[in-house]
Amino acid sequence: MWTLLTGFENLTKEEIDALVEAPALITILVGAADGDLDKEERVWSERLLRSRTYNNPKALNEFYRVVVEGFWMKVHSEMAHSPEDPETRNAEVSKRLERINPILAKLDNQLAADLYKGFLGLAEETAEASGGFLRIGAISAVEARWMKLPMLTPVVSAHPKPVEPEEDDWKEDKDL
Known about the structure:
Number of domains: 1
Low-confidence stretches: 165-176
Largest sheet: none
Oligomer: single chain
Order of helices and strands: HHHHHHHHH
Shape: globular
C-alpha cells in the first residue's frame, strides 16, 4: 500500500507511517487540547479528511485515502495510550509531530508544502469545529496555542501558485 503513494517513494515505511499518523495526532493535539475531543470536532475532522481524498493533487488524494482508513480507530487508540492530563498529552504529541520535520524535508518541495498546508488546515478546522455561535468564536485559548502547529517547520512552496488578478486590475481606464 505504501509503495503506491506517488511522491513518497524515497521514504521508508516508518517515515510514511509517521506522516499518515500525523492527522490523528493533530486532531488529538488541537481537538482535545481543552481536555475533551467532542463529537463536533470528531465529525468535522473526519469530514475534512474525507474531502481531501478527492479534492487535492493526485499524490495527496492517495495519501489521504490511506489516512482515512481506520482514522478513528487510530485516534481512539492514541487517546487510550496517552496521558489523561491535556498538557502532558500535548507535550508528548508535539514531540512526536516534531519528528516529521526531517521527513517533510526529504519530499519534493511542492508535496511537502501541500502536506504542511493541509496539516495546518486540519488543525484550524478542528479548533473551529465546536463551540461558539455557528462556529464563530469557537476557538479556545488552549486550542489557539496549538492550532498553528508550532512544532512543525513551515514549508513554503518554491513555486507558489500564481495569484489571479482582480477584475479591476486588468480593466482599462476609459478616462485616459
